[in-house]
Amino acid sequence: VLAELIEKFVSHLSESRMDCYFSTGSYKAMDADVKKENLSSVQKLGVEMTVRYGKYLNLLKEDAENGLCFVLKNCEEFLKQQQRTVVSSLCCLQEHYAGYDWFASSIFLIMSGDREKTLTFLQQFSRLLVSAFLWLPRLHLSMYLPVATMEYGIHPVYFCSAHHVEMLLKAELPLVCSAFHMSGFTPSQICLQWITQCFWNYMDWSEICHYIAICIFLGPDYQIYMCISVFRHLQQDILKHTEA
């Protein structure tokens, strides 16, 4: 039901010029083109974990690994069309996105391992503003970012979402905010970790689905409210750890 709902919602929005923040060229997924592409060791490990988790949730079949590799390789090729070339020694500014694509993997599980549905959804989703915040590889070396911003190698999620989480935390949860300052660690570091991993390893699968759906339906600012609500939920534990 969720897969059908987000599919129809995103398809509807992506057909409206007013809702399309990014323009995307035409791209056709071809088996032959992506077969010559190789996944990095980090991506291979991510695929292994995703497939294992998907089978544990009874969402994936035996041949799911090939389908997920197909999706990841096509996403890379598709997003490459909207990237700039940068000469930099920074790991995060190399041609390939340095981490694993947790968002695409989450959509693959929501779509029960249907690679065509997943790819169609991601291509339509990439036109919407919310894709910049939920799907981190979306803005990797992106031509939509100012050159200076891109050369710093800092993702907009860090200086937009995570920054606003810190601002809200001061007002909403001053004790949690103080606890972080005392620890010498910033809430934005934690939030970036949560958001990059789509809350994998932090929330149950149904909650991960709710997080993705809420941000798609209600807008990217709900990413910030979600982080604040998690900090509120963890407040007693955080304060207990600070005392200890």
UniProtKB/TrEMBL annotation:
It comes from the Eukaryota. Transmembrane segments: none annotated. SUPFAM superfamilies: Ypt/Rab-GAP domain of gyp1p (SSF47923). Residues 1-243 form the BROMI C-terminal Rab TBC-like domain. Pfam families: BROMI_C. This is BROMI protein. It comes from Chaetorhynchus papuensis. The gene is Tbc1d32.
